[in-house]
Design brief:
570 residues, Herpes Virus-1, 9-stranded mixed β-sheet, 5-stranded mixed β-sheet, 18 helices
Length: 570
């Protein structure tokens, strides 16, 4: 990172902290690495970004929203593979004993260090001996794996059980598949989204908002039938060229539909979510010339994934992954089904029914009737529901009411039947777009912030989209006298009472300094009440980006801002 970029970052971070947008958490207690506060303005900025994210996906019509606990039982994350696999490789400096992620130390020496194994990382560290970021020494200890999840206990005393604070929002959507399947009337495809906190005990948080220990996440799980091709309408994206980096590493410029047609993107639904993700990021204020989609190379790809693309955004920290769009196959549902024994499948009806011979395990009525008496019918039903033929006796059989009976070999018999089958149960596949909200917000701010000179002094301007600006309008009485403050106060109250609008009342300092304060935090509109307002009930409305001014009837201002029609007047 060059000196000019570092100095700009320092000024940007200073502004964000000073103006209450993003600031270090618990600073009066010395702070804590990887934890940040969204301040008085940042909190609403984050909420507006998250709401636009939700509205964007829910508008698709076949997606619903879930909200699941952040405290997660051990078994859930054991079944998902997080207990065994959710780790980073760590090493410590022999001189200062500070711990670091081994792969981040090698970023200057290897193109994809996060794809290296433990032994490969150790070899690369020995070969290159990167300097310690803390003390500049070049002696490194053993490379070891550290699970990134925060441990907790659910319950107290002997009744308590192990759990974790969730590292992602996705698992609740997989464990709720049966509920989602009922909600959508047993018809695929459908999706679920969840926005919320995730927690990762990062080894060495760095780069401000890029790598956090508590992060705002937004994930979408879209369940599909792998044998049914979804006909997505790509018309709107046919002429939109994007920067794509296929797994050969050579960047190309082409439309997403063209990349799908050529086989670069391997699945239509992955392409669909890439296109819709680009639209969403543009709406939030990301400069699309600084966006690229990079396909995972073979070594990066999870073993169960058939295609995966990262949406990377370029700004002060270089190219940073902000969204991952992966075709995850049936891995997640299969893992939870195998662990719990609960069926997480969908029904696929056949156009032409099939007649097949099947073996059915049922009761031997002569022996089972006297043995189970009133329960004989329930035993017969439970036996015939078994997916496999029992091979060992005795075994315990659970009935529908939750009770259990012991089954001996003489209680059962195998019958062959000819059945007409109308379809089959199958495990849906999943396409998952996963968004790092904090990283996206950081890049929105980085792209939106500009520095110029005005009247010989530095001038800071945050060109946020009006859809996400934390404040919609600033109301400023030219002077707090002669009744100007009364009209300004009434307008401020009227604006705040209008759904979806948040106004700021500012009467401190010169009008030029008040405009500068509003520009620095991205307020799109500034309304000034002056002497003319007392005479004709009009006000000066100033546009943040063009800094042009017009006179508008005061009574019309709330509706113009609420309906986004103000821009049409300029």
């Amino acid at each position: 990172m060059g000196d000019a970029v570092s100095e700009r970052l320092e000024r940007l971070n200073s502004m964000l902290k000073r103006r209450g947008i993003i600031l270090p958490a618990f600073e009066i207690h010395g702070g804590a690495a990887g934890l940040y506060d969204f301040g008085p303005l940042g909190g609403r900025l984050r909420n507006r970004v998250q709401q636009i994210w939700l509205d964007h996906w829910l508008s698709q019509g076949d997606i619903t929203e879930l909200s699941c606990p952040t405290i997660t039982p051990y078994s859930v994350l054991e079944a998902s593979g997080h207990v065994g696999e959710f780790s980073d490789f760590m090493t410590a400096c022999d001189a200062c004993e500070e711990a670091f992620r081994a792969d981040t130390l090698l970023e200057e020496y290897h193109s994809t260090p996060d794809s290296l194994s433990k032994d490969e990382l150790a070899q690369e560290l020995a070969t290159h001996s990167p300097p310690c970021p803390n003390c500049n020494e070049r002696k490194w200890g053993e490379v070891s794996a550290q699970n990134l999840m925060f441990n907790t206990r659910i319950g107290s005393g002997k009744s308590g059980r192990d759990g974790f604070i969730r590292p992602e929002t996705a698992q609740g959507m997989f464990t709720n598949f049966q509920s989602l399947y009922r909600h959508f009337r047993q018809r695929l495809p459908f999706g679920a989204v969840q926005v919320g906190k995730g927690y990762r005990n990062e080894i060495s948080p760095r780069q401000g908002m890029i790598r956090l220990r508590e992060l705002n996440m937004a994930e979408l799980e879209y369940f599909i039938d792998p044998e049914v091709e979804i006909k997505h309408d790509f018309t709107a994206w046919n002429d939109k060229e994007m920067r794509l980096v296929p797994d050969d590493g050579l960047e190309v410029s082409m439309s997403i539909p063209a990349a799908l047609e050529s086989g670069i993107i391997r699945h239509g639904t992955v392409a669909w979510y890439m296109a819709r993700t680009a639209d969403l990021l543009e709406k939030l204020g990301i400069d699309l010339t600084q966006l690229r989609f990079r396909q995972h190379e073979g070594g990066e790809m999870a073993h169960y994934a058939s295609d995966c693309w990262d949406a990377e955004i370029h700004a002060s920290y270089g190219w940073v992954e902000c969204v991952g769009i992966a075709h995850r196959g049936c891995y997640d549902l299969s893992a939870h089904e195998q662990y719990t024994g609960q069926r997480l499948k969908a029904w696929r009806a056949w156009d032409i029914p099939k007649e097949i011979d099947v073996e059915i395990t049922t009761i031997n009525a002569a022996m089972a009737g006297p043995a189970f008496r009133a329960q004989a019918g329930a035993v017969k039903q439970a036996l015939e529901a078994l997916n496999t033929t029992p091979s060992e006796f005795p075994f315990t059989l659970q009935l529908e009411d939750g009770s259990e009976v012991e089954i001996e070999e003489q209680h059962v018999k195998i019958e062959r039947r000819c059945e007409t089958i109308n379809g089959e149960w199958f495990t849906p596949h999943v396409v998952e777009p996963a968004f790092g909200i904090d990283r996206i917000i950081w890049h929105i701010l980085d792209h939106a912030w500009t520095e110029t000179e005005k009247n010989g002094e530095p001038y800071s301007l945050l060109k946020l989209s009006p859809d996400i600006a934390p404040l919609d309008v600033a109301v400023m009485p030219l002077f707090e006298k002669d009744g100007m403050e009364i009209i300004a106060g009434e307008l401020h109250s009227s604006l705040c009472g209008t759904s979806g609008i948040l106004s700021s009342y500012d009467a401190s300092g010169s009008i030029g300094r008040r405009y500068a304060r509003a520009d620095e935090v991205g307020i799109p509109w500034a309304v000034t009440i002056d002497h003319q307002s007392l005479e004709d009930k009009t006000a000066t409305v100033r546009n943040r980006d063009s800094q042009q001014q017009i006179r508008v009837k005061i009574e019309a201002i709330p509706n113009l801002i609420h309906s986004s029609s103000m821009i049409d007047l300029f």
